[in-house]
């Protein structure tokens, strides 16, 4: 075993050249001299094994501690030192084991005697190594306290320990290697580690390597600097992995000779503070980003804070406004009104702490604003008022525009040739107007506030109530009714707001009594004309047949006696008579659409189409036409008349195919309200200017030499589709083919 001497008490061997004290002396004599010297020295000398248990002590140790030699032998050093000091001592030992550059430290500890007294002692020790294996320590303990000083130190030590252990902030002490040698209970609870786990551990255990390195650098930078302490913010990683935001303020420990001995620091959990700061930052962000102006006014009417929006509103910078008086931006009367509202707020008498007023801008303009107020005490206990100011220029303009618009609509309603009314979901009229009221001798006031149940007979209500109700499902309806012995046309429709939500229904009414009478007379006239056309057409057929028959008889009997011109004249006459016969036949069919049409029933358009294709089989074969069709729907209608429509459209598509092989396509589109059937060809097409007149009677676009026909087929189609409550039209370009389409309502409104 080798030992380094302290105070000349030990040496490597009797032959050591450090001293002649042992020279020429036998080993047993040396041992006796050593034991005598150890026991007469006032300082306590001890030896600990590698586990920290006493294996040797001198008389001074027994005297200083008050424990017997037998009690000390085998006892752990923690018998005398608290766990913090034991941890510090172990930390020093670990440092010594990790380095060859060793300068034995002088430590100060308060040992606890057998009488439970605290005695301040100075300790110097070294390690006992055998073949580089740690075997324990040997040390010198000196009592450095007098009786009075000891009592004072014990009291202070107790006070300090109490303060350190009861303070809410975490307190720690690190040695030169940034290892914990002291931690208080608050730090233990903050980190979640036990005191035993922390003592001797590197501080990176709880703050990580980067933070511990940075803190160590800052601590070293404080040596010789003007600042006494440094502060660092970092997350503490608890034993369970949770992270706590913390702020640590620390200062280096410097020995009497100016050497760095470690660091002492105070750690505070700043979770709550950070939360408050984040909350404050959030509100500051809100205040600075809202479009409304925000200000704070002190008790004397001076601005103490404004946001950027308020400054922008007035054309100043925030700095220019802060310190200005309220009277600089509003009239004195407004300022006084605001103070009165402020008093009402304080007394709890204000339900609506707001005020409309104009404010003066830097440019001398005046802006209409609306301000709402709140009152709160400031740090100086004086009352302050916070206000939120909104520029209502646009709102005022909208209000004016709304008033003007309302007046315009009121004028329109009052001068509407019929009657207009708005009603709510209870079918109560909220608005009414129109010239019809005057003719019926009804005032607006009679209508507004009344319901349809109060205004109309029960049988009329029963018929119109479904239309009024459907409005709130988004439906519009048109219907005719009789009221006050007159005929009326009525239209109900939903009224929506800017969000497209239905908030009311509208009823528009027009008196159509005279129109109905006129329509009745027209229908009677048309009926007479149809009867005349039918009779005339029917009566003309017999003379035409006679003319045709005699012309054919002349042709047979006298053909050989006629020259070429004569025979040609006969042919022209016969052809003209035949064409007239076809025209009369077409005219008869045209007049029969209303008179001899069948009642409507469910019609399968696929069947109608197939029958027409069969009828046109010869024409299809002769022209080598290709006709394709999608599946067609069922409709309500007259099957015979719809067959005529298909026959005319398909026949025309084949006839007007030009020089190309006829290609005909039949398609349909169906929705909830209508069916559209289209017949498309790739033929000669139709000029845009002619697309309306082809549906008129006897209108032809080509000569008889170019294409045969009477010019009544499309007019007949138009008449049939009209009877079915639909419409027919064509889309075409010359040389690009034509698409004839007709629309039929899903619920037929035809006759």
From TrEMBL:
Reactions mediated catalytically: ATP + protein L-histidine = ADP + protein N-phospho-L-histidine
Pfam families found in the cross-reference section: HATPase_c (PF02518), HisKA (PF00512), PAS (PF00989), PAS_4 (PF08448), PAS_9 (PF13426)
Annotated ranges, domain PAC: 230-282, 353-404, 472-524
Enzyme class: transferase
Family matches, as CDD domains: HisKA, PAS
UniProt keyword list: Coiled coil, Kinase, Phosphoprotein, Transferase
Residues covered by the Histidine kinase domain: 535-748
GO molecular function: phosphorelay sensor kinase activity
PAS domain mapped to chain residues: 30-100, 156-200, 279-349
GO BP, one annotated term: regulation of DNA-templated transcription
PROSITE patterns xref list: HIS_KIN (PS50109), PAC (PS50113), PAS (PS50112)
SUPFAM superfamilies per record: ATPase domain of HSP90 chaperone/DNA topoisomerase II/histidine kinase, Homodimeric domain of signal transducing histidine kinase, PYP-like sensor domain (PAS domain)
Entry-linked InterPro entries: HATPase_C_sf, HATPase_dom, His_kinase_dom, HisK_dim/P_dom, HisK_dim/P_sf, PAC, PAS, PAS-assoc_C
Regions annotated as coiled coil: 508-535
Domain of life: Archaea
EC assignment: 2.7.13.3
Entry-linked SMART domains: HATPase_c, HisKA, PAC, PAS
Record-given protein name: histidine kinase
UniProt organism field: Halostagnicola kamekurae
Record lineage: Archaea, Methanobacteriati, Methanobacteriota, Stenosarchaea group, Halobacteria
